[in-house]
Structures are given as structure tokens and as C-alpha cells.
Amino acid sequence: MELREKMLAVIADVNSEVVEREELIDMIAIALLTRKNLFILGEPGQAKSYVINAFRSRITGARQFERLLSKQTDEEQLFGRVDLSSLLPGSVPQSVLEEDETYTQQRLNLRMLMDGMGSRKDTPEVWERLRTDTGKLESYRSALAALYRSEPAVNTTGKIPEADIVFCDEIFKCNDGVLNSLLTAFNERKYTNEGRTYPIPTISFFAASNEIPNFNDPQEKILAALYDRLELKVVTENIEDRENRLRMLKHKQSGQCGHIGATITLDELVAMHQEVAAIPVPESINELADDILCELRKSGVAVSDRKYLGFSPIAQAKAWLMGHTQVERTDLLALKNYLWHQPGDRETVAKTLQRMCVNPMQDKVNDIRAMALEAQEEYETARGNQSKANAVNKALIKLRGELLRLYAMQQKLAAAVQSDGEKDLVDALLADMELISRRAHEAANFTYAPLEQLAALQ
Length: 458
Fold this sequence. Notes:
Blueprint: H1 3-15, H2 22-34, E1 38-41, H3 48-56, E2 59-60, E3 64-68, H4 75-79, E4 81-82, H5 94-99, H6 101-115, H7 124-147, E5 154-155, E6 165-169, H8 176-188, E7 190-193, E8 196-199, E9 204-209, H9 224-228, E10 232-235, H10 242-253, E11 264-265, H11 266-277, H12 283-298, H13 305-309, H14 312-322, H15 346-358, H16 360-385, H17 389-415, H18 420-443, H19 451-457
Parallel strand pairs: 1-9, 1-10, 2-11, 3-6, 6-9
Antiparallel strand pairs: 4-5, 7-8
């Protein structure tokens, strides 16, 4: 089975356990495929934690970490505590001992000697060998202690610095002491304690909350940076459809929840990263993404340059899931859960993406037609206010120049059509522009010529 088919099987498997959570499940997959972080906003009881746990439980071999945050949560609960043995003179941090192959082998040899002593344990030869091996082990341990003297170590076993997938519930309940460490972990995949920096292997951080902070409140404004580090965002709602509610109720009452039918390994997920990153992004898609950025900013949706410059992995992941050989326009619809910052922006982002990605030709045609009609209105106003022929002629010349500019834009659209429907849209636009030109020329008693001929004369 291909890697893509395996991921789709996991997505379908998780979807079979819940209802009306397709968007969230798709975003979990995209987050894992792009090593991005995901935030889920929703009221309690909307299966946010359940869906995340159901998905990550299907990634075998991945080390998991989960914690419900509160104001009492401290760094040690998330990142590990200082190994006290590393602070004692002559002691060696446990992490150093565990990672040193020579020490581990010598300790194994001593253990095998002791286990095999049996009835020979009182013989001088056995005791002599025992003293020799013990001396070697202690001498080597002393050497390690000298090398790692005064180097405090943190025991990170089972904590975030050793987790492949992390889930932090009630993320905004964290205290100020934990905040900076989480920021560095989310953004740089690093953790620093006692002057030592630990790399964090985490593929994705998942976070959930039933509310977002009031960033206008000085006390909560500090959480804005943490919110910004959660690049993907999904809002969940209560189950709307009655049949879906009843189906979910029956499924829960049957006791069949939690059955795992499809899995992927951690190594397979890493291989998926490579396939996703190899999906080409055509220049036309980059241009469309820039058009979307400009449109959203005009609509009052704040999208930073950093946000815009990081869009392509999400589109690549969506294209990979859809089986596309390169990113297509409709793959940008996945940006619905990437481009919004405040929940109130979601509708604007969704409508803009739908309009510009599903049928962008209609949008561009409408823009050019609106400019042509505006030019026509200006011409008619000028002609109505002017009695002299030369003034009317100037107004017609201005209109003709604008129509020729719009004609050049229409010709670019005509060269880019990809379907009969798009061709019909572009042809209808040209017909409307020709009608405006003909009526203007007739009103000014000038001979009408098609825009194509006028363009050729320039």
C-alpha cells in the first residue's frame, strides 16, 4: 500500500468514530505532514481531545506526551526536572551513564559475572575477577564524573523533549513561568535549562481550548505570541444534524468506540514528509496566493508576510492527499484554517478562497467588467455636462483608452482559459466591452471599430 493510501486509511478510520469532524481530522493530518502546530477552539464536550487522541494513537512507534495545563503546571511537569545526581560532587548524570556505551557494557559484564557465580562464588578466582571488574566499572565512572563535573543535567524521560507528538489541553491556562519555554518549543523545537539546550524531536504540537485570550487585556496580551505559534486553527461546533447525533449515540452505546483499524508507523510519517515536500508549486499558484493575500487585506483580514510566505507546505500536503502531481488551485482551500487569526475572520477567509480558487475566472471577469461599466458611466456623465464637440471627443478618447487597457487584460484571461465555461465567461466580457464602445462611438457620431482593430493601431 502506498504511503498516501495509508494516511487516507487512517483519516477514514478516525472519521468512522466521530461525526461532523472531517475538517478537524484533515487538519490533524496536514499538521503532521507539514510539522506544523494545530489549535482547536471549541466548547467542552465537542470531542476535541478525543479526535486528537484517536488520530495520534494510530501512529505506531511515535512517543506521545499529553498534559492538561493549569496555573499550577510547572516546567518540570512538561520538560523534566534537574537530575540531582548531576549536582553531587563525584556523581554522574543518569542520562550520561545511559548514553555511554563503554559504561553500559562494563555494567552488563559485571551483572553477567554475578548472575553466573552460582556454586563457585566462594572460589578465590571468582572473587578476584569480581574485584577487577568492579574496579574497572568504578574507575570508568570516576572518569566520567571528572569529565562532566559541574554540568547539571535534566532528566527529560517521558517529557516533551523526548516526544514525537505533543498534546496540550487548555493551552492558555499555562502560567508565565511555562510560557517562554512553550514558545521556544513550539517555534524552534528547543528547550534550555541550566545552560544546556535540548533539541525537541516533536513533529507537531496540538493544543485545545474552549476560549481564546482577550489580547486587548494587558494581562492576557502576553499569550498572543503563543497563539501565533499555533499556525493551523480549527473551530469545532456541536453536532448539527439530528441523524448524525443519533448515529453517534448508537455507536457509543454499542461499545465499539476506540477500535483501531488502520495505522502508520513513525518512519512512514517521516517518509510522507519527503513526498509532500517534493510536490511542485507552479508559479501561477504563487501568484494566486498573492492575489488572495491582497484581497484579504483589502477586506480587513490581517495576514502577515510571515503567514503568507509559509503557505506552500499546507497546499502541498493537501495536493498530496488529493493525489495531485502538483499544487492546484483548489488545494489552496486548505488555507481556510491557516489564514484567519480571529474567529470572526473565518467567514471572510472561506468566502474569499471559495471565490478565488474554485472559480477565479469569474472573479477576474467581474472585476474587469466593473471597471468597464465605471468608465462608461464617467463618459456618459462627461458627455451630458459638455456641449462642445471637442470636450465630448476628449471624453470618448479617454473612454477608448480605458477600454483598450481593459481589452489587454481580457486577452490575458483569454490566453489562460482552461475550460469551455471559462472561455464563455471571457467571450461574454469582450462582447460587453464591445457594446460599451459601440454605443459611445454612435452617441458621439464616430465610426465604431472593434477593440481588436483599435489595439492593432496602437
